[in-house]
Amino acid sequence: MRVRRLLLPAFIAGAAGALLLALSVDLRWLEELNTYGNFDVENTRGFITRLLPGTPDSAVLREYRFDHGVHATPLIALGVVFVLFLVLRAVGDLDVKLGIRRWLTAWAAFVVARFGLLRVSGIAPVRRCTYGTFPFLNCQACEMASGGCPIGNLQAALMQFRFPLLPLVVLVITGLALGRWICGWLCPFGLVADMFDRISLHRWKPAHAWRAMKFVVLGLVIVVPLGLGAFGGTVWLPFCSTLCASGKIYGLLPFYATTGARDFGAAFAGGHAGELAAILWHSAVFLGFIWLGVMISGRLFCRYLCPLGAFLGLFHRISLVRVEHVSEDCNHCGKCVRHCPMGIDLGEKDFLTQSECVRCGRCVALCPSGGRRWSYGIGVPVPGKETVLVPDPVRLVPPDTPG
Length: 403
What we know:
Layout: H1 2-33, H2 72-90, H3 94-98, H4 102-112, H5 117-120, H6 150-159, H7 165-177, H8 181-185, H9 188-197, H10 213-230, H11 238-242, H12 245-257, H13 261-270, H14 273-295, H15 300-304, H16 307-313, E1 321-325, H17 335-339, H18 351-354, H19 362-366, E2 372-376
Helix pairs in contact: 1-7, 2-4, 4-9, 6-7, 6-10, 7-16, 10-16, 12-14, 13-14
């Protein structure tokens, strides 16, 4: 028991040491990779060009200055977006009714990931790699980004035949500590996906086996950049250019709404074939995700295509935070399945189902018989037992929880 109690502090100390080492090795490379104008490395190719050959690079010309006062327009515009997202996510939402605060934590992560607003508005020179690499998807094509994307950084490193130390350390520590809890509680794309799911028609339901597709995407995220690098490719990031729904919403959309707005109009007016093709491709993929989200699920990308979710799902049995199904206490009422954002039943023990759980806590709060429980700590839990080695950081089940 004494050894077991020492494992958690040892893990925290080891994780902190690994992060510091990775940052010391990779931070300069990360700054050069994710540059935008004169931040973080001046006169370097903008990250936007890595999303597809031909994408106009207005970002490289962007110059930030802090001696001309505060620019109110970006503060007002993004402030409105912040408030709008908070209201749309909270009003009438089931999580709010159940006392589950993940709507607030995901919104807070979205705000932190956009601290670059202080740079854009001329308030403070917040660097684009202030937070190194985030443990969630965060497209650097957005002018206001304040940290890198682990999947984007992983591809870039592999394409250059560079060991992806920082993204790999971040991903492994996140997987061991939290697993897909990140997807349910911190991912800014999950914030949008949950809002969108409320208006989804759920008309089509792909076969359960299609959830394995994200593991194929994870494999391609590793193999394709290595192949491109072997043939001299060092710029184009294949996943970011094609399947990343998060990048379309949090990267390309704000880019074309701000820095790239002039390029968007010029490409159509001037008929520049390369730029026009890139813009049309970005637009088609974005609209395609919207349509599929309406027809299938707001969390379509999370269920079937997200390589980050696939990687974190590999840790589903050993992460420190878990949700367990207690079969002997289950009365098979079906509330958990009806309200699960990932559309799964943890009573099914196959790998695809278990690795899908984003630890949102809805099933724990809704279950009238105690068939779902939070489980915390190191070690694989015993079925039917609740392992609690650390205190619950968020009160998930208030006294008036609906039964």
